[in-house]
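Subject: for your reference before the review

Hello V.,

The reviewers asked for a structural picture of the protein, and I figured it would be easier to keep everything in one thread rather than splitting it across files. Below is the amino acid sequence we used in the manuscript, unchanged from the supplementary table.
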Amino acid sequence: MELLSSLPLGSLPLSYEAAAILERYSRASYFAGRGDWEEIYRQAEEMYTALNLHNEATRLLSFLVKAYMEKRNYNKAFEMLIERKERWENENATLNILGKLELDYNEILLLFAIGKYKNAKKKLESSISFSYKSSTFYQVEGLYRLACFYAMMNAEEQDVELYLKKLTLFGEFIDSDESRSAVLILRAHYHNKYTRNFIKAEQVIEEYYHINGLDPYYAMEKGKSLFRAKQYEQALKSFLEFKEIPEWIHPFDLSLMYEVYAYIARCYIELKERDKAIHYSRYALDGIKSLPNTPYKEFVEETAQLVKR
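And here is what came back from the structure prediction:
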């Protein structure tokens, strides 16, 4: 960081190397909490685009999107992405396949984040189709997960099974425990939240445990299965093992997180500990109120009403 800050940033030559230095300085400044990171970011982006390195600029844009998502400033992130996309199109910028998929993926994430679900689904399906036509499967696993999650929220059972099957095959193809675990968590979540078959959910979540042991995902879904089985003390014990995941910055992830706290509140209601129920319900409601409408938000709001009774 000290080495970067000693460079004459205002007089760097127009070159790929200079743009790459500015990019790294911007990222380092952001993670160090410096207020000038975005100005340095703009310098790097301007240099990349002046050099017609739009694929590099697209990669850098992913960093900007993530930074604004971490602040929950989803609308601003979306506006900035669309502004750059339109400007690059007007400049006849050429993106390679990976650059296009990266840009599409960020647009899909943000469309879901701001509640433009129909547009997000349309863009998602188009991006998956493009991935297959180009035989380039960059980000396709993330797209399948988003598609599956959205299908769950909309009770599209056939689509849920279709995307779970595709994710299973993808995980087998790349021989990844992480991918297999993601499918198991999605299945457990689907049964806990939507089919309400806590017995099936319990079976799947134990498969997950054999791979990963106790982690936040296990604590979350195990707690729900126990709650559905009316084992409130054990459910509470599991939910209290849940630890917030820093990488959860998208509204879908955050909504899942706040639903856990609503479940904790409901456990305390069942256990006649009203003050603790109020505390966790308020935390969940305060956290989720600015996020788009989802079944998770409805659950948190319903919990708040239960606590008031």
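For the response letter, the relevant points are probably these. Residues 251-270 form the longest helix (20 residues). Residues 142-229 form one domain.

Happy to draft the paragraph if you're swamped.

O.
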